[in-house]
Amino acid sequence: MVMKKHSLSKKLFLQAKKAIPGGVNSPVRAFRAVGGNPLFIKKAKGSRIYDADGNSYIDYVLSWGPMILGHAHPRVVSALKKATEKGTSYGAPTALEVELAERVLKIYPSMDKVRMVNSGTEATMSAIRVARGFTGRDKVIKFEGCYHGHADGLLVKAGSGATTFGVPDSPGVPKSYAQNTITLPYNDIPALRRMVEKEWKKIACVIIEPVVGNIGCVLPKPGFLETVRNVTRKHGIVLIFDEVMTGFRVSFGGAQAYYGITPDMTCLGKVIGGGLPVGAYGGRKEIMALVSPEGPVYQAGTLSGNPLAMTAGIETIKELSRPGVYQSMEKRSAMLEEGLKEAATRAGVKTRFYRAGSMFCTYFIDGDVHDYSTAKKADVGKFSRFFSGMLERGINLAPSQFEAGFMSLAHTEKDIDATIDAAYETIKKI
Ligand code: KE4
């Protein structure tokens, strides 16, 4: 195997660290969990990304989920070119944001109304504020390992970058904020029941990743989501499904359609922006009636609903709405799952592979993973060697054992075969 050259990425990283904290605009990109220097990406097309040194990789990060069509999809690119010529942002309502809202509401019928924002963090932060306004209660229940963005009250045992850095609570978060956040083990029904029975009068909402994509990929145990739904409904607690990652990913209608659970509010992001900055939160009409200017709960955003992001989101959803798209995604994802499992078995290395729709994770562990504490038992040293070996063989995976991987419509059977071959060659050497 010819070792790839990374001199330009290395040079750019040194330069970046002089101007940007850690040299990156989002921590997980810095490769701290796996060692080495991050790749600086020059371009991407279809299933591939190309780094500054001209190396190409089959990409399973896909910008952490948004690029479900593959990179630079012709339909999205040409629509964006036309939209750009009409101006990039007006700070006024447009027909485009109405169209995207109507499309989202049709696909997520649990929502009567939806508000566009600019990131998943904004979506969850705003949804929690509305839930507090609706119930008049202050406390929030979240689950260990679930990551809902970096709003202060949610950086309490966040499972994404924070877990990778082993810093469950971030400095700078006032204790008073953390005091309003109750963190429970995921999949632990007795713990949830005990807490709600005791504290329900103070609990505004439960926010949950219906499939956890921020400690790898952790699935809800049978009955868990149903219990969360029943317990919250019984006590007038708002159930918020954070579907920023699972939306359009686990199925077209997200995890709520996949598992048949109707939340009171839903947060979306990633895919609905088609690679441009979009988040969204929505819910039942009586809850969303509180959102300013219709109601008293304030939330705003200069670039919310901007025409470029709406265009990319609309074109992405139109493409995803075509017949057979999700069957083909399922086929590709299942093919990868079978191949990676078989490669590990053939190499004689213990792993666990979990998948929901086209999001997945391979844990280097000899035991089931069903929550934060079991995920943390994974052999991160083995994962790091797996990550580096796959990168050298032209496969780009998420640079952390505690992140999910994603499939796109652009990945071909040839890509998947190459991935499986690279995995066998890599795993047998770690
Ligand atoms: P953003 O603010 O990053 O758009 O979304 C926050 C968020 C909210 N909810 C869920 C379930 C999420 O997965 C995320 C963000 N996901 C991470 C990936 N683990 C984004 C990658 C990063 O932080 O750079």
Number of helices: 15
User: What overall geometry do the principal axes of the alpha carbons give?
Assistant: globular
Q: What's the structural domain tally?
A: 2
Estimated share of beta-strand residues:
5-15%
Order of helices and strands: HEEEHHEHEHHEHEHEHEEHHHEEHHEEH
Helix fraction by DSSP (H/I, runs of at least 4):
25-40%
The description of the largest β-sheet is: 7 strands, mixed
Radius of gyration: 21 Å
Q: In CATH, what is the class of the largest domain?
A: Alpha Beta
Structural commentary:
The protein has 430 residues and is α/β, with parallel strands linked by helices. It has helices at 7-19, 74-85, 95-107, 120-135, 161-164, 175-179, 189-199, 224-234, 254-259, 285-288, 307-320, 325-347, 372-375, 380-392, 413-427; strands at 41-45, 48-51, 56-59, 113-117, 139-143, 181-184, 203-208, 238-242, 265-269, 279-283, 352-356, 359-363, 395-396, 405-406. It folds into two domains: 7-72 and 323-427, Aspartate Aminotransferase, domain 1; 74-320, Aspartate Aminotransferase, domain 2 (3-Layer(aba) Sandwich). It contains 15 helices and 14 strands. Strands 4-10-9-8-7-5-6 form a seven-stranded mixed sheet, with helices on both faces. Strand 7, helix 8 and strand 8 form a beta-alpha-beta unit. Helix 7 (189-199) packs parallel to helix 8 and helix 12 runs parallel beside helix 15. The relative contact order is 0.16. The model is unreliable at 158-168 (pLDDT under 50). The structure holds ligand KE4. Ligand KE4 binds at residues 26, 28, 64, 119-121, 124, 147-149, 160-161, 209, 213-214, 242, 244-245, 269, 279, 403.
